[in-house]
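Support reply, case 0932

Customer input (verbatim):
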Amino acid sequence: MSTFNFFSGAGAAATLAALSASLGIIEFDTSGKILNANENFCKAIGYELAEIKGKHHRIFIDPAYAQSQDYNEFWAKLRRGTYEAGEYKRIGKQGREVWLQASYNPVKNRRGAVVKIVKQATDITAEKLKNAETKNIFEAISRA
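Our regenerated output:
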């Protein structure tokens, strides 16, 4: 049984360019240090690449969560090669709340060792804020 490889041959660069055009993409080393990020990701979070490159993923999360066992386990799972996906509340530049629908994808070398983590994300902040506003309106009406 053969598996189609989307990222092989001459089409790899075109495939990655297509994904990068619509998604925010950021790369981390296995410790969580930022290696690179595309323009879409930087725009969503409000930083320029030069401001975040070389810093740890922790800059995007609540400081209390950064010190938690859950956060440590999140990165341990990624290092073991486990994919993580969901909706994530992040902190953008100047403390702005940013919501991302994202997946964290461990990238393995030919020997199967995880060498980096690639996160692909879509900014869902506007949807989250609209949903919260609608919920608040319904709660206010129900209390009246």
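We compared this against your earlier run and they match. Two observations from our side: Helices lie at 11-22, 39-45, 49-52, 63-66, 69-79, 125-143. The first helix runs from residue 11 to 22. Please reopen the case if you see a mismatch on your end.
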